[in-house]
Specification:
41% of the residues lie in helices and 14% in strands. The chain is of the alpha/beta class. The protein has a domain at 94-306: Rossmann fold (3-Layer(aba) Sandwich). The strands form 2 sheets. It has a 7-stranded parallel beta sheet with strand order 5-4-6-3-7-8-9, with helices on both faces. β4 (127-134), α4 (139-145) and β5 form a beta-alpha-beta unit. α2 (65-92) runs parallel beside α5 (164-176). It is globular.
Amino acid sequence: MCVVCGCATTGDQNGEHGTHHGSDAGAPAPQRLAETKERPQVDAQTGDLHFGAGPARVSVPGMSQQRAIKLETDILGENNRIARQNRQHFKAHGVTALNLVSSPGSGKTTLLCATVTALKQVHPGLRVAVIEGDQQTSFDADRIRATGAPAVQVNTGKGCHLDAPMVAQAFSQLHNHNHDHHGHDGELLFIENVGNLVCPAAWDLGETAKVAILSVTEGEDKPLKYPDMFAAARLMVLNKVDLLPHVHFDVQRCIELARRVNPGIEIIQLSATTGEGMDAWLHWLEHAMDRHHDHAATGDPAHATHAATEADLRQRIAVLEAELRQAKAAGATA
């Protein structure tokens, strides 16, 4: 997981990240690596290696499983503290925040541009803003601004995801430049995360829900290959369906695999280019805002996607992984 692979150096304010290789600081690096090296599970039939089978579900050279768990707990704990503040801040401003996650090239920005344009027509009193996450450039934020919606670009450098402090600062920038809220019917904030189907799954930004966008050009097996992301998402948008006649993509199998990982996930099929399915997407957004405002009014938690604990998600994913290994072994012996 990225909290221990080097991109989460913001959590290492006291040099901790540079000294996590063990208590024997004077030992040569090869010795420290040998002492903390995780032995993967080996599939007896195929020889496949499973490095995520330990308690931490991640293998980092020179770091024990116990140290990885502690580092992840410390960093995510601080991030989640800021995420709770973000959630309170969003609530105070009447903001429904959605975290859009996907692999690179799924069509997130194209979908956002089409969504902003459509919302202006059907909900002219609704304020829509965007926080754009990328490693470099402001290309995507420029595309959003061209639609007339305010956008702030967040460049993460070597970072492979947005975190709660980044979102807090970006939201502050948005509201520093847009003080006037009179005449608005609320606010919809889209957070377009860095293209990555792994790391953003673990990071709470204070959002109302995660929306996983999967294009038909990527392959229908993505929900099982990247289960953490689809387990954390409330909605899966199956994008670029206009290309289905030109690609090998089994829609029903994709839906089946997504619901195997997350039985409660909602699914919308659409094409941001042709407009197919856009009405269903806009309808989902309206309901997301209604649910968020109802929760805020009654004092219920607005972050329904975080109702399941991380331990619950991990247990579900571990069961799925075990089932996949058993099925693979059975197929090899058949």
